[in-house]
């Protein structure tokens, strides 16, 4: 009887935690569809007890940049232009996709070398890579920025691609090393006996066999880069042409913090892509994280 009650209690606790965690998100989602006057005067849960107008105007203003007219506290009519996050949305993709693909390829190649190839100072170099995991990226921002200024890489996508690649490599190499090192040695020995070169083995054996770990790393890297604000501010600056989504949302909070109806819509625009990536790769997530944790 105790064994049957224990899993039931755990399930009830987990369900309660999910509900508590979901309530603010549900409220944010509902608020993103409500007009400004309703948000400022009534709580979001009143839509369940009374009729409330819900539409897509907030998303149209945030994404499409459409304008609207409202009355200020002095009774004057003010025409407000939209935020047009579409450009920032594309800029985030431009920054994120290369910042995910490049470090994953480099980390996979490095992890394969550390796990199965023999070369001088292999253990020392791998120890240095692991030690870099505890170094906060904030201490490297100013020195790297000075080098970027001399190389004229500030405000360019190439500069932020290189920055995210360098900051993401230690975790990527360590995570993929734990997985690649568990691949049976017979697979590589057979390939070497057949005359296959290391690069051929890497592309035809290591990458296909490491899909779970690569997917887990892709989720971590994508979420980090997509939600990043600090690195984007330092290396891209604040110009609208290259500003990513997090920069535009921060501008909205700073310039019009009272416009909650626009902030809620902008928040969900920012959340949509990471959620889609996570749900698309979630079946690999646990397998990739657990890989290499238990041997023998």
Tell me the helix content: over 70%
This entry's quaternary arrangement is single chain
**CATH architecture name of the largest domain:** Orthogonal Bundle
CATH superfamily of the largest domain: MetI-like
Following the backbone from N to C, one meets helices and strands in this order, namely: HHHEEHHHHHHHHHH
Low-confidence stretches: 66-82, 292-296
Percent of sequence in beta strands? under 5%
CATH class of the largest domain: Mainly Alpha
Distance between the termini: 35 Å
Structural class: mainly alpha
Averaged pLDDT: 80
- The radius of gyration computed from the alpha-carbon positions, rounded to a whole number of angstroms, is 24 Å
Shape: globular
Topology:
Blueprint: H1 2-32, H2 36-41, H3 57-64, E1 68-71, E2 77-80, H4 86-116, H5 122-131, H6 138-151, H7 157-180, H8 185-193, H9 198-209, H10 211-226, H11 230-236, H12 245-255, H13 260-290
Antiparallel strand pairs: 1-2
Q: Could you characterize what this model shows?
A:
This protein is mainly α and 296 residues long. The protein folds into two domains: 7-81, no CATH class; 86-292, MetI-like (MetI-like fold). Helices cover 71% and strands 3% of the residues. The chain has 13 helices and two strands. The chain has helices at residues 2-32, 36-41, 57-64, 86-116, 122-131, 138-151, 157-180, 185-193, 198-209, 211-226, 230-236, 245-255, 260-290; strands at 68-71, 77-80. It has a two-stranded antiparallel ribbon. The longest helix is centred in the N-terminal third of the chain and has 31 residues, at 2-32. 26% of the residues are buried.
